[in-house]
Write a structure and sequence with these properties.
alpha/beta, Rossmann fold, 4-stranded parallel sheet, 36% helix, binds phosphoric acid mono(formamide)ester
């Protein structure tokens, strides 16, 4: 049984295959409409979500399957003190596959030890978010055609940003990738990501506190939200929240073919004036999420069309 806890659980060949299946689903959705008939996806979200939960649910419904779960853990028995292990033991008896989001880093590993069905990590605290990365990779491949040789700028909350950690680890496996890490001092990339996926991989990188200074070098600008919910101290959040705002003026310094990605939700970090720029792909990226998740559900259930 295969789980998806960390994007590195998938080989690059498996990621390529998922991307190809997702593209085929986008082109021929009717071919897949019964692929998961009589299968049940459980979505257990112990943290808020719009895109990830709803795209998973839409994905399973579009595959002809069914969905159950909760979007607010206060309505589940975890509010009565039930352990995650017991919850997963129960739910794996009611479903064929589980997508879970939890505020505690590592909780999908605990879940994987107490399940009879595949577990998908839909975000664990400030750790990883592998299905967002699949969404990002599908978008990059569709728009730029390749991963090798790209200069990837990641801007904002690199400390707590689980989407950043997963994307860096995934991109580190491609040739001649270069990273530009743009953050305030307080929100720098954690050493467990920098050491393992950049330094040990021998990849070039620079760190900058200024978006303006580096935007002209980038092939991809991956903007992220400063995440209020991760800050132990509200004062720090208030001081840092508007550090980076991508606007039309800054976009003038970017390459004509740079793409702007963002896992969303955004707060202030991308001005709405940028939305109409053809390089702004974050809504298309979110749309893509449904189709790569369809491909992933089929893969983990062992279903081929
Ligand atoms: N990108 C992402 O994880 O969005 P949600 O929090 O809305 O699921």
């Amino acid at each position: 049984m295969q789980h998806l806890i960390n994007i590195m659980d998938l080989t690059t060949a498996e990621i390529d295959e998922l991307i190809e299946v997702a593209k085929d689903i986008l082109a021929n959705p009717e071919k897949y409409q019964d692929a998961c008939r009589h299968k049940i996806l459980a979505t257990l979200f112990f943290e808020p979500s719009t895109r990830t939960r709803l795209s998973f649910e839409s994905a399973m419904l579009s595959l002809g399957g069914n969905v159950l779960g909760f979007s607010d853990s206060s309505s589940s028995s975890s509010a009565k003190g039930e352990s995650l292990a017991d919850t997963i033991t129960m739910v794996s008896g009611y479903s064929d596959i589980i997508a879970m989001r939890h505020p505690k880093e590592g909780s999908p590993i605990v879940a994987s030890e107490h399940t009879a069905v595949p577990i998908i990590n839909a975000g664990d605290g400030g750790h990883y978010h592998p299905t967002q990365t699949l969404t990002d990779l599908l978008t990059i491949k569709t728009e730029l055609g390749h991963f090798d040789g790209l200069t990837v700028g990641l801007c904002g909350d690199l400390k707590y940003g689980r989407t950043v950690h997963s994307l860096i680890s995934a991109m580190s496996r491609y040739e001649n990738v270069r990273f530009v890490l743009i953050s305030p001092q307080e929100l720098k990339l954690p050493s467990f990501v920098k050491q393992t996926y950049i330094k040990d991989a021998g990849l070039p990188y620079i760190q900058s506190t200024s978006l303006e200074d580096v935007i002209g070098d980038l092939d991809i600008l991956y903007m992220t939200r400063i995440q209020r919910e991760r800050f132990p101290d509200e004062e720090d959040y208030l001081r840092l929240k508007d550090t980076y705002i991508l606007d039309e003026e800054k976009m003038k310094s970017a390459k004509r073919d740079m793409i702007v990605l963002h896992p969303l939700p955004r707060v202030n970090e991308i001005s709405t004036g940028v939305d109409s720029d053809p390089r702004a792909l974050y809504f298309k990226q979110a749309y893509n999420g449904k189709f790569i998740r369809m491909a992933l559900i089929m893969k983990l259930l062992g279903i081929k069309i």
